[in-house]
Specification:
By secondary structure, the chain is of the alpha+beta class. It folds into 3 domains: about 130 residues, Jelly Rolls, CATH 2.60.120; about 180 residues, Peptidoglycan recognition protein-like (Lysozyme-like, 3-Layer(aba) Sandwich), CATH 3.40.80.10; about 90 residues, Immunoglobulin-like. Helices cover about 15% and strands about 35% of the residues. It contains 5 helices and 24 strands. The protein has a 6-stranded antiparallel sheet, with no helix packed on it. It has a 6-stranded mixed sheet with strand order 12-15-14-16-13-17. The longest helix has 18 residues. The protein is elongated, with a radius of gyration of 28 Å. The N terminus is likely disordered.
């Protein structure tokens, strides 16, 4: 049967590192991309540009947009231009989309220079190639497999509600875990897809990500310790007491959390990657990391994005729209540990006791970090005492006290006084009665 060779125009404006945060993105060799047609099928051949090997190649993957899963094979080209045999790939559908994450792992190849995919579909089927990448070695085990797990500390921070593995229908691990010997890193990821607006969608995405990580990527289990959807639901990935498989070369001591969605614009005209962090997801990140930080004695200031461990060319994860928020998130985690949840609004509460004749307590809430002055005024509006004039982080139930003395440390006369709290964004006063 005669074969017709056609040039395939690929839609590949999507950055390679957006299609997953588990593979090193590769550029495509458009001159070697072609389509072969026969009476029933269409075979698309896609080859990467040559790459400089930075580690042992464990495998490769491709992301394809197609109504049905295409039959896909892969082969690797060595430095001497010899090729491996074609190897059949495994695929998983990203729920609620036509995107297929297809690949193979556990090959342990050396001295390769490029990778080629063969995609066989029905002759009438349209496909779009959104990216190809290499699977590099990401150890899931520490050098000391029998390392004891660091003892958890008792904590004053309440653990947020977490959807358990049984509740989202997790598979068992395929080859066991390696205990986390210590904790000294916190990492935030995005899934670059696999988006979920509610619990039902989140469960479907968790199951798909686990299948991808186990069957396609070749890991023992889902790589993340926790996953958060757009509704703020938190899911348990693998236990946080064991090593994850989310950050190549830095998994030991590293608790990894992934936010579902794609947070790195612009992606392409055909794939939405403009997600913004929802308020409820932000709250869940803060609550979760505050509990992790307090429980495992990891300071919030070590929190990094996935990209911070590599050259940016390797991955953009967790995307600009998340990564840019990390400085603020670190501050909010520390505040949550110390002062509890961030309030929804500024508040100055009535002092207690009132009236008072010895000392009274004044409580207030702060919703953003800024400088506040808390001062006492007499009924004529004259300032008689500055109690505080300093920066406060977001937090509930701050407390200051007044003992009925002025700035000269002398007891004032009985009567009505005003306590004023003032910042750039908030001001309020309450009336207090002092009795000698």
């Amino acid at each position: 049967m005669n074969k017709i060779f056609l040039t395939l125009i690929l839609s590949c404006t999507l950055r390679g590192d957006l299609f997953t945060d588990t593979a090193k993105p590769l550029d495509l060799n458009r001159s070697n991309t072609r389509v072969l047609l026969n009476s029933n099928t269409k075979t698309t051949l896609v080859e990467s540009l040559q790459y400089v090997e930075i580690d042992t190649v464990e495998g490769a993957m491709i992301v394809i947009v197609s109504e049905f899963e295409p039959m896909t094979k892969v082969r690797f080209i060595y430095g001497d231009s010899t090729k491996t045999p074609w190897i059949k790939c495994i695929g998983v559908n990203e729920p609620y989309t036509n995107r297929w994450h297809i690949g193979i792992s556990k090959l342990l190849l050396s001295n390769t220079k490029s990778v080629e995919f063969e995609i066989i579909t029905n002759k009438e089927s349209d496909i779009e190639i959104q990216g190809v990448g290499l699977f590099l070695k990401i150890p899931e085990k520490s050098n000391n497999i029998d390392a004891p797990t660091q003892t958890r500390r008792s904590t004053m921070v309440t653990k947020p509600l977490v959807v358990s593995r049984s509740e989202w229908g997790a598979r068992p691990p395929q080859s066991g875990y390696s205990n986390m010997p210590y904790y000294n890193k916190l990492t935030l990821h995005h899934s670059a897809g696999f988006s979920a607006e509610n619990l039902e969608e989140g469960i479907a995405q968790m199951q798909a990500i686990q299948i991808f990580h186990q069957d396609v990527r070749g890991w023992s289990d889902i790589g993340y310790h926790f996953v958060i959807d757009k509704a703020g639901n938190i899911y348990q990935g693998r236990p946080e007491t064991v090593m994850g498989a989310h950050t190549s070369g830095a998994n030991t001591g590293n608790i990894g959390t992934c936010v579902l969605g794609c947070y790195h614009p612009p992606a392409s005209d055909d794939y939405f990657c403009y997600d913004e962090l929802s308020n409820v997801s932000n709250e869940s990140i803060i609550k979760l990391f505050a509990w992790v930080s307090d429980t495992y004695n990891v300071q919030p200031n070590v929190l990094k994005g996935h990209r911070d461990y590599y050259d940016f060319a390797y991955t953009s994860c967790p995307g600009d729209n998340l990564w840019s928020l990390l400085p603020e998130i670190r501050v909010e985690i520390e505040s949550y540990k110390n002062f509890g949840p961030t309030p929804d609004q500024y508040q100055l509460y009535q002092n207690f006791p009132n009236p008072f004749n010895n000392i009274t307590e004044i409580r207030f809430d702060v919703i953003k970090q800024e400088k506040f002055e808390i001062a006492i005024y007499d009924i004529l509006g004259r300032k008689i005492k500055s109690i505080a004039n300093q920066n406060y982080s977001p937090g509930k139930d701050y407390r200051v006290f007044w003992d009925g003395k002025n700035n000269l440390n002398k007891v004032v006369s009985s009567g009505v006084y005003l306590c004023s709290i003032r910042s750039k964004n908030f001001k309020k006063a309450i009336r207090m009665v002092f009795l000698k």
